[in-house]
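note to self — DONT lose this again. spent like an hour looking for the file last time. sequence + predicted structure for the chain T wanted, 265 res
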Amino acid sequence: MRRGLEREVTGREVTTATITGARTVRRQPAEELIGRLRGATFGPAGRIGKFLLVPLDDGAETLVIHLRMSGQLLLTSPEWPTARHTHAVLGLSDGRELRFVDPRTFGELFVADSPVAALAHLGPDPLSDGWSAAVLGRGLAGRTGRLKLLLMDQRFVAGIGNIYSDEALFEARLRFDRPAGSLDRREVARLHRAVRSTLREAVAHRGSSLRDAQYVDLFGAPGAYQERHRVYGREGEPCPRCGGLGAEISSTFVRASGVMWMSSR
């Protein structure tokens, strides 16, 4: 999504802005957001974790976007039918519209003077240069909670969700319910490599679109990484590593979180 924004909207001016969803702009009044966007020119998009950052004009202000569970950012022609649950429409100088669609209204848009300050609660981005195996190891030390849950805690590391925590843990040959602080140095290094390689592969295949088809790119096309999932959503299927169906472990946790875990032998 970041790459699509950088390619398609960099240098485009926002000529019109319409906001109809109050929850979508809950951090600031809709009139204020419209005023700060109208007439601004988009710079190259960035990202911190799951937050998209689109600089405005000289970069003094930034449009911050989070899709959450069901949000979609679609780049369309004005003639294209407006989808139900479209809560924001930005008209661009090239004649197209950038639309924010969100049935569950968990996603949001806001303009920040300092996105770094606005997102200061987030942990490091796992694909940033600063997130090393040593940093990960120090963060894990002394933690007694389950490893998977900690990886999904955006305050610990920003950007890992349910799907990619499963895939990375499988790649690292680590159980989801291991106490986070129990990993030795070699296991920490394995986990660090697995997280980064999993996320890079997922980005290369344009993300994961599940059966609900909520995640799509700027043009409404689904991702393809779901075809490469080795554990997520594969309950009852053979393990790609050992061929077994895995143990019946922590079934309450599995049902509650939608997690399926296979043998890591």
